[in-house]
Amino acid sequence: MIEAPGSAGLTGTAHERPAPGVPCWVSLMVHGMAATQEFYRALFRWEFRPGPQQLGPYVRAVLHGYEVAGIGQLPPDRHLPIAWTPYLGSDDVDATAEAVRSCGGTVGVGPLDAAEAGRLAIACDPTGAVFGIWQAAEHLGTGLTGVSGTPAWNELLTYDTASVATFYRTVFGYEEEPVSTADSDYRTLHIEGRPVAGIHGVGHALPRDRGPHWLTHFRVEDADTAAERVTELGGRVVSPGRSTALGRVVAVADPEGATFSVVSPLDRADS
């Protein structure tokens, strides 16, 4: 990682080529592109620039000059769940896609080229949770983290961690660190000794209409204030705020129903 130049007071980091298995991008497919852009522009102060159009209209969200997320247009006849999808890094997306299949997952899109940006696939783990695979070329992924409006953490919400941990460990080479408490089923996924994502077993607390799914946390200065702003902009609070190891977290949904969390560090002096 390298220090981000530019805006006064900007203390986040810009990123080089992602290591295999590291979440390196998040993307959202929606029906109302214009309305969705307005929502996230007002919430996170994102600006937008065009991205690859292979799967339809697509824009990249830009913050402080860095690309941080993507938003695409669903075809009118595709009635899929509206959800943020994390992309996991790969040096060879074709080989990773084959590993997904051999370990009981499915590949729904690709592998295919996204112009000169890179090569991608969209897959499901054996429980049905959707994730992307990204082989970077010109587009390395999320360009900035550590400041408000950027992805802070991705975790898989599933029935229990044991049901899918072997899949992700085999496909992406993660090391695991269980979080052992009486009322928590959680494993942190590590690459090269660094925590990069989590698996949270929540049993029957999963929404009946969603099933297992990945959840992206976006950093903000104050999670409760950001959640109030979500509701003002036409979204809703999914679950009340709580204190976690990441900080203060509130689960919310945008006006089309895409769920995500806003998280503010316990010490917000550097936000």
Automatic annotation (TrEMBL):
Q: Which region is the signal sequence?
A: none
Domain named VOC: residues: 150-265
Q: Which Gene3D superfamilies match?
A: 2,3-Dihydroxybiphenyl 1,2-Dioxygenase, domain 1
Family annotation (InterPro entries): Anthracycline_SecMetBiosynth, Glyas_Bleomycin-R_OHBP_Dase, Glyoxalase_6, VOC_core
Q: What is this protein called?
A: VOC family protein
What is the scientific name of the source organism?
A: Streptomyces cynarae
